[in-house]
Design brief:
heterodimer, A: about 200 residues, alpha/beta, six-stranded mixed beta sheet, four-stranded antiparallel beta sheet, 5 helices, about 30% strand, B: about 200 residues, mainly alpha, about 0% strand
Chain lengths: ~200, ~200
């Protein structure tokens, strides 16, 4: 489902990624572990097409993402940053993003996760009034509004309390039964998954 | 349809920024009051040029609501990953900016006419609408062009003045046909370029 061939990325004179190769099939949960600044976020942004690699190619569902942008329908991403509109309520944000993917309302997957993360009581609260942890939960649901086959998560557990961490880890295990889930983390995770280490720009 | 959702989202977000809405309405109110008062003291001929100048300032204020705010708030990353073409995003921002400039400018016109009892100024409404379209295209494009730059808040007004300077004479002559042609050419050029600017 995801194929990275010899991906290199340079910022200025510094090479962040050095020849990353990856071939991911359906029903996989992958953790990319690395220190701060090791290039985890850059790698995720390259996979989702937000950053262009200096060298190499990325294919999603067999299509080169530089030539075919339809892959966007199949990829959901949770950024480290909040990408929600502060002035809109939680529900308005999620509906806006759902509609942009052609859904009239929240799809079943997003609705279930919305409930499991106990977001119902914050449905009509403006995002600017939420704490960091609750924003992160809403951003997590936002990443699922297009019912994606590939889910990319940039440090999904950071800033969350123990309960939320466990709920999200359970969710990720469930989601990876039928989909590809790739997440980054600065430390090893206590969950059954394929773990890659990103060090000096090399994935091992 | 997606263009409509993008547009509605921008309208909703902007309408909830109470402080900024009140600020810009106050600017329109105070500027029209000052222009009207000075026209009684200096000359009635100052009303029309002062109106155009105020409209340019309104356009500069509203330019920050476009791409610059999306990038400041990180929401632009969300937009970039949506399955919509950069052209659609550019169009929605341009239409939104047009709504803002045209409504605030119309308010300025009405207030000027009322405060100065210079009702002939309302004849400018047609050329003002075309100029608003010109400004909204320039505003969206300037905003998109410098959104990744750290000095974006300073660069946008500079760029806007550069893009506006070719039509100043046309505006002062109130030559609506030339302005229409200039607006169409600019729109076509920026629409073509926007795809590359937003893809970066």
């Amino acid at each position: 489902m995801i194929e990275l061939v010899d991906v290199w990325k340079r910022f200025g004179r510094v090479w962040i990624l050095r020849g990353v190769n990856m071939n991911v099939r359906r029903s996989t949960l992958i953790a990319i572990v690395g220190e701060n600044g090791s290039g985890k976020t850059t790698l995720l942004k390259i996979i989702c097409g937000l950053i262009k690699p200096t060298r190499g190619s990325v294919k999603i569902l067999g299509r080169d993402i530089r030539k075919d942008s339809t892959y966007k329908y199949h990829v959901g991403i949770l950024f480290h940053e909040n990408v929600l509109y502060d002035e809109l309520t939680v529900h308005e944000n999620l509906i806006f993003y759902s509609r942009m993917y052609g859904f009239k309302d929240l799809n079943d997957l997003a609705r279930n996760v919305f409930k499991r993360l106990n977001l119902e009581r914050y449905r009509d609260v403006k995002v600017r009034d939420l704490s960091y942890g609750w924003r992160k939960r809403v951003n997590f649901v936002r990443a699922l509004v297009n019912d994606p086959e590939i889910i990319l998560l940039d440090e999904p557990l950071s800033g969350l309390d123990e309960t939320a961490r466990n709920t999200i880890l359970d969710l990720l295990s469930d989601l990876s039964n039928e989909r590809v889930v790739i997440m980054t983390s600065p430390t090893e995770l206590d969950v059954e998954c394929r773990t890659f280490h990103l060090m000096n720009g090399v994935l091992a | 349809m997606r263009l409509l959702w993008l547009l509605l989202k921008d309208i909703r977000v902007e309408s909830r920024r109470g402080f900024e809405v009140i600020s810009v309405i106050l600017f329109v109110f105070i500027s029209s009051l000052l222009i009207s008062q000075s026209s009684y003291v200096i000359s009635r001929d100052t009303i029309v040029p002062a109106f155009w100048l105020t409209v340019v300032f309104i356009a500069i204020f509203t330019s920050t609501t476009s791409f610059i705010r999306e990038i400041d708030k990180n929401t632009f990353f969300g937009l970039k990953l949506l399955p919509v073409s950069p052209l659609t995003v550019f169009m929605s921002k341009t239409i939104f900016t047009f709504i803002l400039i045209s409504s605030l400018g119309t308010l300025e016109l009405l207030l000027l006419a009322t405060f100065s009892s210079y009702w002939e100024i309302l004849d400018l409404i047609t050329i003002f609408m075309v100029f608003s379209l010109y400004l909204s295209i320039v505003s969206s494009f300037s905003s998109a062009l410098v959104m990744y730059s750290e000095g974006r808040s300073f660069l946008v007004p500079m760029l806007m003045f550069i893009f506006i300077s070719p039509v100043i004479l046309t505006i002062l002559k109130q030559d609506i046909y030339t302005l229409l042609i200039e607006t169409s050419v600019l729109f076509a050029a920026f629409l073509t370029l926007s795809e590359y600017v937003l893809e970066v």
